[in-house]
Design brief:
heterodimer, A: 411 residues, alpha+beta, three-stranded antiparallel sheet, 8 strands, 45% helix, B: 183 residues, alpha/beta, five-stranded mixed sheet, two-stranded parallel ribbon, 5 helices, 25% strand
């Protein structure tokens, strides 16, 4: 463990509680016997119940399911099942020319497709040695921050909804829609934007776009203030989220935890700072951390990152270059052969480290394009680990607090 | 000699690592023999600070009859990525030593690789549980010799009344007859 921050007393209480639950599971004769290190559940004994949460369930983030063994209302075993959204992207990409891959990649993460576009474009540019104009860098960073904000707005609704607060979800989804209006204006699309082409971006900013973006940001900020007052200061939310799903800093590296989940455990790790890309080195922002490492701390980190996102977008609006090219001419894309080699490119998305690994054999199709989504570890192994001892009513809140998107698990 | 060069040299000396390569600033790759791979990963994780496993995946080189496994590690103290590449034969049954004892998340990667490429990792928990493909009976689908078109034609039926068109021929003959010669 390198530079593990000390766990705060509040979070330590959560860890103790968890440890106590674990001891309770091992010693209590009512709990299942352990054979070869594995709990054996006799479902016929009537002590346990196997239940499925998902794939069609409001408490599940997207299309996945949890196979839960419960004793009373406490979870004693959890297995996650994915595959309800498997579309075989990585296989599809191996059979397509590079430019044909471009409209496919954004479909890998539905609420936040821009990181896929950015990483695909950036990976190809790095491997082919293409430099993109400065204005394209600014527009790309702006779009990534808009995507971050839109995605967090969707998450806020989910997190509130999981604890029975559905009003905030309606506000935040409206704000997301205002941002989608801006996306529509900029790219012509609301959900899958297909805007960051290898070589730059597809079109210049529409006239007066930055002014309208500023207005939208003002509206978003007002709503965020309301959400902070009504949700984050709400006793129900605090009581249910505090101490829920405590991630011990010691397991952060073991489970490959990144993003707000790691920052809420005290690790000041943000790829925008550590390995800067786009125009982030020119923008003023700090890495937001907490030490409690529970669902509430993670929510606080995300809320602050939303305010930070608004501030970053305002800085970008102020400093966006007025003119200049937004695109570098590419070779004939129908016959574009990317030089032989391999490279891994990553970016900080709302959930953590999002990465693309491209291996090219020098032909006009990728040999292998691997997509590293942060949910791959958060939604599967980490969720299975954290949900043990958790109350069944809190499972949805726990899952949303990890902010997982199943499509990037199965790709 | 910088810190990473020293590390790559040590990997070569201890584990027979070859082909050290820097692809961009703070990103290095090295090839390690399969028998030494887990020992090298253990050293990198426990002694050299490469505690974060970004991902673990496989690239299929059908024509060379080998799989290239890639463990991409990251060290937060050095701020460096290090990809450990391991070549193993691809003829079934394929076996590789697991890394689930080093990273809890390794189990999930291994389940996926078992399902998608048919690589066995003896001792890995829940290795034979379905991951994304429930009830899959065919050849592991990410292997390059898996014919997706043949599988689709065999498994699914075209809706009645739907004409079968060879897209390539249709474009040449019907849509762009004048330009077809230039393709």
């Amino acid at each position: 463990m390198v530079n593990a921050p000390k766990i705060s007393p509040k979070a330590a209480r959560g860890v103790d509680l968890r440890r106590r639950n674990q001891a309770h599971i091992n010693d209590n004769p009512l709990m299942p016997p352990i054979v070869n290190g594995k709990a054996v559940f006799e479902l016929e004994s009537g002590k346990y119940l196997k239940t499925w949460q998902g794939p069609q369930h409001p408490g599940i983030t997207g299309n996945m399911s949890l196979e839960l063994v419960i004793c009373g209302d406490e979870i004693v075993e959890c297995k996650t099942h994915v595959g309800y959204l498997h579309r075989g992207f990585e296989k599809l990409l191996e059979r397509r020319k590079y430019i044909q891959c471009f409209p496919v990649v954004c479909r890998i993460a539905v609420p936040e497709p821009d990181f896929n576009e950015y990483l695909f474009a950036e990976t190809l540019e790095s491997l082919s040695g293409i430099q993109i104009p400065e204005k394209a860098q600014w527009i790309r960073t702006m779009q990534l921050e808009m995507a971050r904000l839109a995605s967090f707005f969707m998450w806020l609704g989910g997190q509130g909804g999981a604890f029975g607060m559905e009003t905030q979800g309606q506000w935040t989804v409206t704000m997301r829609d205002y941002l989608l209006d801006r996306f529509e204006e900029l790219t012509g699309h609301r959900i899958y934007h297909m805007y960051m082409l290898p070589g730059g971006v597809r079109s210049d900013l529409p006239e007066g776009f930055l002014g309208r973006l500023r207005d939208t940001l003002d509206t978003c900020q007002t709503t965020l203030d309301d959400v902070e007052r009504t949700m984050f200061h709400n006793a129900v939310f605090k009581m249910r989220a505090k101490g829920l799903g405590v991630i011990n800093p010691a397991i952060v590296e073991e489970f490959g935890i990144t993003g707000p989940n790691a920052r809420a455990a005290g690790f000041a790790r943000d790829l925008r700072k550590d390995e800067p890309y786009g125009v982030y080195p020119q923008l003023d922002f700090a890495v937001i951390t907490r030490t409690d490492s529970d669902a509430y701390a993670r929510a606080e980190v995300r809320l602050e990152e939303m305010y930070q996102g608004i501030s970053l977008l305002r800085q970008i609006c102020d400093r966006m270059p007025k003119d200049g090219p937004f695109f570098t001419p590419l070779p004939n894309v129908l016959h574009w052969q990317v030089p032989k080699g391999f490279i891994y490119t990553k970016a900080e998305c709302t959930r953590g480290e999002y990465g693309y690994y491209l291996e090219s054999d020098g032909s006009d199709k990728p040999r292998r394009l691997y997509v590293r989504g942060p949910s791959y570890t958060h939604a599967v192994s980490l969720m299975e680990h954290l949900s043990i001892g958790c109350n069944i009513a809190d499972t949805a809140g726990l899952m949303v607090s990890l902010h997982t998107y199943p499509p990037e698990v199965e790709r | 000699m910088n810190d990473m060069e020293r590390l790559l040299e040590e990997l070569a000396r201890r584990f027979g690592a070859t082909n050290p390569l820097q692809v961009k600033m703070n990103q290095y790759y090295v090839s390690v023999p399969s028998a030494q791979a887990v020992a090298a990963l253990t050293q990198l994780k426990t002694l050299e600070g490469f505690g974060h496993l970004s991902f673990f995946t496989c690239v299929d080189y059908l024509e060379e009859d080998r799989f290239e496994l890639l463990y991409l590690l990251h060290s937060y103290t050095r701020g460096t990525d290090l990809g450990v590449r391991v070549s193993i034969p691809r003829t079934l049954p394929v076996q590789m030593e697991g890394i689930h004892h080093l990273w809890a998340a390794g189990e999930t990667y291994q389940r996926e690789l078992r399902e998608m490429y048919g690589i066995e990792f003896p001792g890995s928990p829940r290795l034979h549980d379905d991951f994304a493909l429930e009830g899959w009976q065919e050849m592991p689908p990410m292997r390059r010799d898996f014919d997706t078109k043949e599988y689709s034609l065999r498994t699914f039926e075209a809706r009645p009344g739907r004409a079968k068109i060879d897209n390539r021929e249709h474009m040449k003959k019907e849509l762009y007859p004048s330009e077809a010669e230039t393709w």
